[in-house]
Amino acid sequence: MTNFDSEITNGPTPTNNQGNNNIIDETAEERQESPEEVFDVAIIGAGFSGLSAALLLGRYLRKTVVFDDGRTRNHTSKHVHGYLGFENSSPQEFIQKAWKDVLQYNSIKVVREKVTKVERNADNNTSVFFKISTNSGQPIAKARYLIMATGVQDSKPNIENFEIYDGNGAWHCPHCDGFQTANKKLGIITYGKNTIPYAKEFLGWTRDITVFVQGNYQLTDMDRNDAKTLGIKLVENDNIIEISGNKNGRIETIVCQGSGSYEVDVIFYYLGYKVQNRLAKQLRCELDEEEGFIKVDSSQQTTVRNVYAVGDVDTDRHYVVFAAASGAVAAISIYEQLLKDAIKNTREKS
User: Fold this and answer.
1) Is the dihedral of CA 281, 284, 285, 286 positive or negative?
2) 36 pLDDT band (50/70/90 cuts)?
3) How many angstroms separate the CA atoms of 326 and 35, rounded?
4) Contact, 95 vs 51, CB < 8 A?
5) By CB count within 10 A, which of 206, 230, 261, 270 is most buried?
6) What does residue 99 show for φ and ψ, rounded to 5 degrees?
7) Edge-to-edge strand list for the sheet holding 209-213
């Protein structure tokens, strides 16, 4: 096993000391089957859902390792919306504060590497462990429980100047940022599938909507009739070549190859995403057949024992507050199961 002293960093000035003066740690020590360090929980992913789980597990005194391989999904966004107490907060500042909150508990460790492989031990009895390997190529940790917070990867437009406005005038989630379209000219960039249902999400904010269908996707007559009835304008078979704005950094026009320029104030894109479910597939967790989301129950547990999934990876409701809530639910569920098992073992021993 890797030396954790060199791979893992603690947070700044932990405010508590983890001891074994509790029934869970006492039981775990008595049943320790390996000389190697075993964590109660391994969390793969350090976004809003993963850190939410880590915070509670720290407060439960659970030995937890968090694997963080980089930036969060919304790292380009300027603001978080719809999260009570954090409205208009910077996502970067939010995550920095979340890390500070989590790392005050010294039962939490961090590995700044990408997890490439997770193996479940062959023992199907009471002792279940997961062996976790990273891009270093070697197994780096063992854990009794696993939380996958791996999220999704968005497909973004390959259009000149798009990166200038990504997260600052151009967004993808109507529930998170749809308010920014209120009474404005909205341009929606899409490949076509489920375009009209997506466009309808914005009708509560604006009636000035133009949908730019990219690629070779052909809308159905039903889609076109529905758009016409609702006043949604369609631009088909005309690829966007540029997005332009003013000197203040505000979007002004979408420029198409054939039909020229269209005035817009705000852009939303609906080009799909890739669910990061590779590790779930390794463990043979059941997935949603259409989108590939990881199936979970009300406690966020997957179809594989002791494996949980949280955040965007298990639902198409991609919202920061939902992600954080799902992480908390998973942490509470794991703690309650650990406590239940420890009480049971203590009773059986006495």
Assistant:
1) positive
2) low
3) 33
4) yes
5) 270
6) -60, -45
7) 170-171, 266-270, 186-190, 209-213, 233-236
**Alpha carbons 271 and 135: distance in angstroms, whole number:** 29
Burial 33-72 (b: 16+ CB within 10 A, else e): eeeeebbbbbbbbbbbbbbbbbbbbbbbbbbbbbbbbeeb
Distance (Å, whole) CA 154 – CA 159:
15
- Joined tokens for residue 314: 């298990």
* pTM tops 0.90, yes or no: no
Tokens of 8: 């893992």
Closest CA to 302 of 44, 20, 21: 44
Single out the residue of 154, 151, 63 nearest to residue 114, CA to CA: 151
Statement: residue 75 has pLDDT above 80: no
> Which residues are within 8 A (CB) of 274 and not within 5 positions of it... i.e. 6 or more apart?
152, 153, 155
Q: How far apart are CA 306 and CA 240, in angstroms?
A: 47
d(CA 279, CA 253): 41
pLDDT in tens, 175-192: 889 999 999 999 999 997
The sheet carrying 240-245 orders its strands as: 240-245, 251-256, 260-263
Given a contact cutoff of 8 angstroms between Cβ atoms, the answer to whether 131 and 294 are in contact is no
Residue type, 118: V
| Pairing of the two strands 186-190 and 266-270 | parallel
Q: What is the pLDDT of residues 319-350, one digit of tens each?
A: 889 999 999 999 999 999 999 999 998 998 87
Beta bridge partners of 261: 255
Assess contact for 312 and 320: CB atoms under 8 A. no
Q: CA angle, 152 as apex, 147 and 153 as ends, to 5°?
A: 140
d(CA 273, CA 180): 22
Distances (CA, A) of 194 to 125, 211, 322: 45, 12, 23
